Every structure is written in structure tokens, then in C-alpha cells.
Amino acid sequence: MHVRRLILKPLDNNSYIIDNENEAIIVDPSSEEEKIEAYLKNNNLELKAILITHYHYDHIGALPYFKEKYNVPVYDYKTIGKFKEANLKFKVIPTKGHSMDSVSFYFEETNDLFVGDFVFEGSIGRMDLEGGDEEEMAYSLELLKKMDKKTKLYPGHGGITTLENELLNNPYLC
After folding, report:
1. E-state strands within 28-150
2. CA distances from 84 to 45, 51, 73, 138 (A)
3. How would you write the pLDDT of the chain (174 residues) with one tens digit per residue?
4. Helix, coil or strand: residue 151
5. Which of 8, 84, 108, 167 is most exposed, with the fewest beta carbons within 10 Å of its own?
6. Exposure class string for 16-42: b at 16+ Cβ within 10 A, else e
7. How far apart are CA 103 and CA 77, in angstroms?
8. Which of 74, 73, 62, 3 has its CA nearest to residue 29?
9. Which of 101, 136, 107, 137 is nearest to 120 (CA)?
10. Residue 36: phi, psi to the nearest 5?
11. How far apart are CA 60 and CA 55, in angstroms?
12. Cα–Cα distance, 46 to 43 (Å, whole number)
């Protein structure tokens, strides 16, 4: 499994392309579909699925384009459970708090967690937007604390981090 982070405009969103054996999964196709598509084509990757951590506009701008053109499954808050795409197993985990439709995608074999705007390096997602909820966020953070400390966290904005780093440095997880 290889993970490529694309930082896309206008809000410097992280969209990720996860590839395995010439098959790919896109996490949060926020915008700039031509940039995402160029990466797929240049690396001879066949798109197999799309993962949506939540439906805020800055995370789904290119979703209609990829859904229509590639006709692949979309995993989100409506598809909680265990799945396999591109020969990769992952779990869809509810991580409400930033929004009521927030989920994270956990690839247990590689210990990778795609968290959207749930957790950032040194912070957490806003809860003052529609659907934000402090109690739900507190519950989700407690679940996160129970995961393997070596878990890599891939947020929707900013740098990639680890749970271990966040437990030591993130005031919301210390």
C-alpha cells in the first residue's frame, strides 16, 4: 500500500490516493479533479473506490466528477463496517464531533487512519459549524485514545502525524 497526499485548492485540503497493485482509492476528492486524475493516469492506476470522511463542501468538490466518470462505490457515514477495495481491507469508523457524518477509515494491516477534519496535528476539528457536537467529539476522542499509539493519522488539512505524537502534544488528547 502506498499513500500519496495531494494538497488541493482553494483551502489546502489533503486528498489522498491510496494505491495497491495498480488499483487506487481516493480519500476526500476535494477539488482539482484534473490533478487527481493526472496522478491516476501517470501512475497507471485504476480507480476502485472513493472514501468520504464527511460532506463539508471543501472535501467533496470533485466527488460528482469521479462518481459520474468512474462509477465506483463511495464509502461514507452510511456504510459503517468492514470492507475490501483494491485488495485492501479497511473499517469505516464513526468519529462524530466535527460533523454528524464524520467517519474515519482504518487500514488495520498498515495501521493507517484517515481522519478528515476529526483530528489535526496539534488540534481537532471545529465543532461550531452545523452538525458539530462537543459531546460526540469527546466520545470520538476517547475511542481514538484506545487505538495503537503507532497509528498514522492522515488529516484533511495540515501535516500527517501519529497518535503517539498527538497523545503527547495535542492539548485535546493529552
Report:
1. 46-51, 74-75, 81-85, 88-94, 103-107, 112-116, 119-120, 123-124
2. 17, 12, 11, 29
3. 999 999 999 899 999 999 999 999 999 999 999 999 999 999 999 999 999 999 999 999 999 999 999 999 999 999 999 999 999 999 999 999 999 999 999 999 999 999 999 999 999 999 999 999 999 999 999 999 999 999 999 999 999 999 999 999 999 998
4. coil
5. 84
6. bbbbbeebbbbbbbbbbbeebbebbee
7. 6
8. 62
9. 137
10. -65, -45
11. 6
12. 9
Give the whole-angstrom CA distance, residue 133 versus residue 115.
Answer: 16
Residue with cell 466518470: 69
CB atoms within 10 A of CB 135: 10
Cβ 22 vs Cβ 45: under 8 Å: yes
Q: How far apart, in whole angstroms, are the C-alpha atoms of residue 122 and residue 158?
A: 10
| 6, β-bridge pairs | 15
How many angstroms separate the CA atoms of 36 and 54, rounded?
19
Residue with the three cell numbers 464527511: 54
Domains identified in the chain and CATH numbers: 2-169 (3.60.15.10)
